[in-house]
Amino acid sequence: MKKRLIAGSAIAALALSLVGTTGAVADDKFRDGKGISNILSGLVSNGTLTQAQVDAISKAMQDARGAGKAAFEAAKAERIKVITDALGIDAATLEAKRKAGQTLAAIAGDKKDALIAALVAYESKKIDAAVADGKLSAERATALKSKLTAGITAMVNNEAKIGKALKGFGKKGHGRGDK
Q1: Is 131 in a helix, a strand, or coil?
Q2: 55 contacts: CB under 8 Å, gap ≥ 6
Q3: Which residues of the chain have pLDDT under 70?
């Protein structure tokens, strides 16, 4: 049973990797989980997987999606704390000013350089942690850090979103190069 589940997971992973080339519409469908369900149903129909295996794969994917959302929200909260600490304001004030259309640079005023320095230090620590955890090579960390100040400055000035400013995280931030 365990071998079949592993084989089924490998098949699902292969199917997911092939999906990336089908375009934005298909990508959105898979992001919502609908396309994956169709593929897994097909694998049950042709006898490659059992329904129990598909249920286990689906649950694992839902759990991973939930964990990913939680990690994203936690990282967002950390960044907001870095910003609010550097500027000496609370999160509600920051959110209200951003919703009113102010850039981080405008909100920061004369604290703009301190904000950029705080964000660069925070992101550098995150990169260092990824290297320490074996998730990122030292060479890749050096390359990312070389773009950090310019990227964060562009983000603070509202010239670019963080993902665009720090090219190299790849297409949609998924590590596929500068696409």
Answers
A1: helix
A2: none
A3: 1-34, 160-179
Q: For residue 165, what pLDDT is reported?
A: 43
Judge contact between 40 and 54, C-beta under 8 A. Answer: yes
Radius of gyration of the chain (CA): 21
Of the CA atoms within 13 Å of residue 16, those in its CB half-sphere come to 16
Residue position matching structure tokens 């010239």: 159
pLDDT at 30: 56
CA torsion through residues 14, 134, 131, 65, sign: positive
Residue 19: HSE in the Cβ half-sphere, 13 Å Cα cutoff? 21
Whether residue 157 contacts residue 103, with contact meaning beta carbons closer than 8 Å, is answered with yes
Q: In residues, how long is the chain?
A: 179
Which structure tokens are listed for 141?
A: 């960390």
3-state secondary structure of 18: helix
DSSP string covering 53-118: HHHHHHHHHHHHHHHHHHHHHHHHHHHHHHHHHHHT--HHHHHHHHHTT--HHHHHGGGHHHHHHH
> Which token pair is 153?
């400055």
Would you state the structure tokens that stand for residue 85, as one six-digit string? 């600490």
pTM of the model as a whole: 0.59
